[in-house]
Design brief:
Helix content is 61%, strand content 15%. The protein is flat, with a radius of gyration of 17 Å. The strands form 2 sheets. It has a 3-stranded mixed beta sheet with strand order 3-4-5. The relative contact order is 0.12. It is an alpha+beta fold.
Length: 146
């Protein structure tokens, strides 16, 4: 199989497929979901937003391969919390960072909980080099909707 730069030909197709799906499906769908949330006071659009965000994160991990173990784990762990609507990794280079969409009233409790789980996760796998607040950006979505 031929190589283009540092990528096997199949990997370039996979990366283009991810780029297309991210740009044309996820971003467009997320914009519609945010608009529905804003128009309905948060009642409509949240399930679509959560589903599209999960799709985006899955593609980042499985198709782009530009995350590290902790930026793969943090969004999944965040979405296990009832107060977290959705979460994903973003950025690149050294694994990037993560974000979570959480109701403003729950942001402090969410951060305390995820920070404790992050510390335990890092202690079990490797020495933590960052605090969770350096890796995790929390969007308080009450501020967006009102």
């Amino acid at each position: 199989m031929g190589k283009e730069g540092n990528y096997a030909a199949g990997a370039l197709v996979e990366r283009f497929s991810q780029f297309y799906d991210e740009s044309e499906v996820c971003v467009a769908g997320m914009a519609d979901a945010f608009a529905a949330m804003a128009a309905s006071g948060g009642v409509e659009g949240s399930e679509a937003l959560a589903s599209l965000t999960a799709m985006s994160h899955r593609m980042t991990v499985q198709e782009l391969h530009n995350t590290v173990e902790v930026t793969e784990w943090l969004p999944w762990q965040a979405t296990q919390h009832a107060e977290c609507l959705c979460a994903s990794a973003f950025g690149a280079g050294f694994g990037g960072s993560c974000w979570a969409l959480v109701k403003a009233a729950e942001a402090d409790a969410f951060l305390a909980s995820i920070e404790a789980k992050y510390k335990a996760f890092c202690q079990m796998r490797f020495m933590a080099r960052h605090t969770v607040s350096e890796l995790f950006f929390i969007v308080a979505y009450d501020l967006i909707l009102h």
